[in-house]
């Protein structure tokens, strides 16, 4: 029995025995069931042979520049004990890029650094450990933890960060029908998964929109990410002093729930193709929604996280020197003494890969960066939030 059949059987049997489930529960099972869920299976997910690319899989410079931003935060947070907490580390490539940068460029920080990875998938923890070991970066300062680990009860001084984590949290799907907010439930009928609309499963769904002052139009769909609220509240509690960096694709709420987005933002990705139907390729395709950054900001401010700034990935990386990094690649070709056509072609290819991170129509405008802080005497000035143009 392959993974996709396994997770479909689990869902079908659950619905047939206990009745329909919320879309959030469906998405939770499809993505996170151990061992059959998409993120827990042996399937290659990231890169050319997978279903999608992440910024860190495009080029290591993304991790290097993120490292430089975190390094800038170290003295602001006190310059002594400092912990980096990466939440949802994927295959560990971003962890490797950051730690390699710290080790090479900031040895003082590397010696005192504690790097904690929060990863729920046992398979991915194994992959992360293997990759860090292969890079010679696994030392006593690197550890894995869960959200309930006692080390967070004491409070962390440092930086919590995530890259494309919140978009994969299970969401409730709603639709305005007959003037009332209805929730999408998943049923199993005639040998197929089907949608059923009914009253919301929790009053928190209506409160979510009330809090934002947003009213969906008749026939409009949207997603409600209650897990994101729980997550940012947890981060706010676990952080004693320092920063939170959230990198993901999304919008402020007013734009996210704009009437022009009548179908919502739920999409699946299978072999680098967009799939709108979540009921096919079950267990074999990624499933994501755009992040509501307004709710992350509001919830953070309610729980002690102040907002340092909100920008897109293009401006974030511009502020951290990505243009200088692109220019340096040409100089490196000359310095190696191998400026032949093959080396020049390789350098051009590398430059184009880096530009993907900042091109407005690619990752530059789609991905947003929210930086929050806590326990500081004044609002910090950070390079990634500089006004470039």
Outline: globular
The total count of strands amounts to: 16
Structural class: alpha/beta
What is the alpha-carbon Rg in Å?
A: 22 Å
Number of helices: 15
Bin the strand percentage.
15-25%
Task: Describe the protein's architecture and organization.
It is built from 15 helices and 16 strands. 40% of the residues are buried. The radius of gyration is 22 Å and the shape is globular. The model has no long low-confidence stretch (mean pLDDT 92). The protein has helices at 3-18, 23-32, 55-58, 61-76, 93-105, 107-112, 122-134, 204-212, 226-238, 253-256, 293-302, 313-319, 322-335, 341-356, 360-366; strands at residues 21-22, 82-87, 113-118, 142-145, 156-163, 172-177, 180-189, 192-198, 221-224, 239-251, 267-270, 273-275, 286-288, 291-292, 306-312, 367-374. The protein is α/β, with parallel strands linked by helices and 389 residues long. Helix 9 runs parallel beside helix 11 (293-302) and helix 13 runs antiparallel to helix 14. The protein starts with a helix and ends in a 15-residue tail after the last strand. Strands 2, 3, 4, 5, 10, 14, 15 and 16 form an 8-stranded mixed sheet that branches. Strands 1, 6, 7, 8 and 9 form a 5-stranded antiparallel sheet that branches. The protein has a domain at 318-367. 41% of the residues lie in helices and 24% in strands.
Layout of helices and strands:
Elements: H1 3-18, E1 21-22, H2 23-32, H3 55-58, H4 61-76, E2 82-87, H5 93-105, H6 107-112, E3 113-118, H7 122-134, E4 142-145, E5 156-163, E6 172-177, E7 180-189, E8 192-198, H8 204-212, E9 221-224, H9 226-238, E10 239-251, H10 253-256, E11 267-270, E12 273-275, E13 286-288, E14 291-292, H11 293-302, E15 306-312, H12 313-319, H13 322-335, H14 341-356, H15 360-366, E16 367-374
Parallel strand pairs: 2-3, 2-5, 3-4, 5-10, 10-14
Antiparallel strand pairs: 1-7, 6-7, 6-9, 7-8, 10-16, 11-12, 11-13, 15-16
């Amino acid at each position: 029995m392959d993974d996709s059949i396994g997770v479909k059987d689990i869902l079908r049997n659950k619905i047939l025995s206990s009745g329909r489930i919320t879309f959030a529960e469906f998405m939770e099972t499809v993505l996170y069931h151990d061992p059959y869920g998409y993120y827990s299976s042996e399937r290659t997910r990231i890169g050319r042979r997978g279903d999608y690319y992440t910024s860190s899989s495009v080029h290591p410079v993304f991790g290097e520049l993120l490292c430089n931003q975190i390094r800038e935060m170290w003295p602001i947070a006190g310059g002594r004990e400092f912990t980096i907490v990466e939440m949802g580390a994927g295959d560990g490539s971003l962890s490797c890029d950051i730690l390699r940068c710290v080790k090479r460029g900031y040895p003082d920080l590397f010696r005192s650094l504690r790097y904690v990875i929060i990863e729920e998938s046992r398979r991915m923890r194994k992959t992360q450990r293997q990759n860090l070991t292969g890079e010679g970066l696994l030392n006593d300062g690197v550890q894995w933890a869960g959200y309930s680990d006692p080390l967070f009860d004491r409070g962390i001084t440092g930086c919590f960060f995530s890259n494309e984590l919140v978009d994969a949290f299970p969401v409730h799907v709603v639709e305005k029908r007959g003037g009332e907010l209805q929730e999408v439930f998943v049923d199993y009928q005639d040998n197929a998964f089907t949608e059923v609309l009914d009253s919301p499963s929790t009053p928190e769904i209506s409160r979510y929109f009330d809090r934002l002052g947003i009213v969906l139009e008749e026939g409009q769909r949207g997603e409600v990410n209650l897990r994101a609220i729980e997550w940012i509240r947890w981060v706010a509690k676990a952080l004693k002093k320092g920063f939170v960096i959230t990198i993901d694709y999304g919008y402020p709420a007013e734009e996210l729930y704009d009437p022009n987005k009548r179908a919502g933002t739920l999409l699946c990705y299978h072999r680098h193709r967009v799939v709108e139907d979540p009921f096919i390729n079950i267990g074999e395709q990624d499933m994501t929604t755009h992040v509501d950054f307004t709710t992350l900001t509001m919830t953070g401010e309610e729980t002690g996280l102040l907002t340092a700034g909100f920008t897109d990935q293009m401006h974030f990386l511009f502020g951290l020197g990505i243009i200088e990094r692109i220019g340096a690649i040409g100089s490196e070709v000359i310095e190696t003494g191998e400026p032949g056509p093959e080396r020049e072609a390789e350098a051009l290819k590398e430059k184009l890969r880096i530009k993907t991170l900042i091109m407005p129509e690619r990752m530059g405008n789609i991905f947003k960066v929210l930086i929050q802080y806590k326990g500081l005497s004044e609002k910090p000035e950070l390079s990634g939030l500089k006004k470039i143009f």
